[in-house]
């Protein structure tokens, strides 16, 4: 045996011995602790209330404090500030009988006080280091403020833009979604959870939540196991493989049983098939909500949840109040209670809370590590990478840093909406509006005129619903015609118009489903009026979901989709509009022509009556009478200020056998005037399978940077592992045959080659 191999083996054995020794130490610590615990105290660990009434300095007197002292609380969430958290932790470790520290959770979804783009935006960077870095900074800031557990990442595959929570995930594709899941989990947790700046991650919402029927939040899902295993489950599994500490069950039902009571999902798949060893928490009051689902009364559903594999009950408190009776009646087992309690204690142990319950309560860190200049700078640069340039006719963009600009629209001067949905720790007063961003970045060189032009929506009640959580758009009560005329006056005095339109932050996210996914009509009226002035118009589009942009794509010369870019969005948008940063984001969801095409996604099946590429209607083909099958913008699409050309694909072999490696390469050339980044995408089609297969599936991507005029060869190594899928019997394997290899700039625009692969 070679020396190096021997060394590797010795190291592996040493590491695994150390891990076993640490596990044994943890086990004996928890064994000893659990021996002292009463049944009530065990159930207390399994209880996760929302902090609710705790105010600074008053922790000891709150209702929650009473429960903590009685050992009825395992963790808390919705509590912000290191001072409050220290106070509450003090109650737990000084006044409860067993002094078990609490775990403190929060929805740190895309940043803490320094807010990064909403997850769908982050995913459009296709840059895993950048995504990981955003999670790392979020963990540093959150942990500096007392938080040690985040309810993130949300990895629900979503193919229905009516569903508002599409904003919170990484888009429609399982391969990309899995990479993002891994990047985020490792960003939060780091390699060492005992450090005081790493926090435990909670992957959610397990499972299939993104497929709720009709895109209506909390609705039912119903799909084949094939579809689950091949499309919806991979990102959750990737998070588990990356070592995620906790999992959150979803609200929806799966195969007729709510995920929260679904033993197949929580035990057979998660634990037995995937080997997950952390704890599972419910979503908010999800146990009690199973009464609404109609599968029993509170007593019944809490017993079902526990026996299915739920370890911690978020907010509902039915574990706390019902389990003793269920135990007496033989409806739940002591073994399940012990296992649940043990897993929660293990999480606390792994976080180092038994060694030092105040580990995350360093007030000095809170003062120096949150919303720092350095973090904000990173957020600004990350935000710019998330924007997707959808259209740029005649290279209107980037704009000149001279002349007069009219900035118009309900989202032009609103800092509260910039962080986007789920920015619970943000201080909105500190985020940067587009107007401020423009003024600070280019204000000394250009003249900026500003007017609202239109409210978010004609209907003030709709606007109230779309402006919750302190994210009001401060509706203008003047008549619409007056608001519009004011905007037209400044538009006519300008050289270029920037129209800041689209959704407000709370028009997407939880419980923000829409049946109409257009830009609200009143804003379109404004846009039409602006176009009529004859001045060049740049649409800066705010959205948390794919919108129907058919008319906009046909009529507006430039469209930059900025999602919700976070606390530094205003600066980042200015950076991109004026060319200091060349946009490089690519869509991770398909943008439909109308809502009737939904669900629409690139990796669809062929059917037996596929329409020929590039054609429209043909009788007895799988198509529509009134619209082509094409999207407005396909998955993977996004422009740059420069242009790229792709050579044909070069293959090292066209016939392969067994475990050989196929190398597929293309030469990519920057044919434009600017340096730029390009996401080179690899898709594969399994031409013949034992089951129907998608027309293409993303199997790799590389983000490269090319100077103007520069060329680079981009190579992908493909092995049979990349060809594997779950077959009819849910066996994960590859099948011999023909494969189409596709490489290109988006899922629609690819070069093609063919190979044959035998076993
Ligand atoms: C959401 C979760 C979130 C939880 C706690 C629920 O309503 O579905 O995503 O983590 O609340 O805030």
Give me the secondary-structure topology.
Blueprint: H1 3-36, H2 39-45, E1 47-48, H3 63-69, E2 75-77, H4 82-95, E3 103-106, H5 119-123, H6 128-144, E4 149-150, H7 174-189, E5 200-206, H8 225-232, H9 234-241, E6 246-249, E7 253-254, E8 257-258, H10 263-273, E9 279-281, H11 286-293, H12 298-308, E10 313-314, H13 318-328, H14 334-350, H15 363-368, H16 373-386, E11 388-392, E12 404-408, H17 434-442, E13 447-451, H18 460-465, H19 480-492, E14 496-502, H20 521-532, E15 537-542, H21 550-555, E16 558-561, H22 569-577, E17 644-646, E18 650-651, E19 655-657, E20 662-670, E21 676-686, E22 697-706, E23 711-718, E24 725-726, E25 732-733, E26 737-744, E27 750-758
Parallel strand pairs: 1-10, 2-3, 3-4, 4-5, 5-6, 6-9, 12-13, 12-14, 14-15, 15-16, 19-27
Antiparallel strand pairs: 7-8, 11-16, 17-20, 18-20, 20-23, 21-22, 21-26, 24-25, 26-27
Helix pairs in contact: 1-14, 2-13, 2-14, 6-7, 6-16, 7-9, 11-12, 12-13, 16-22, 17-22
Bound molecules: beta-D-glucopyranose.
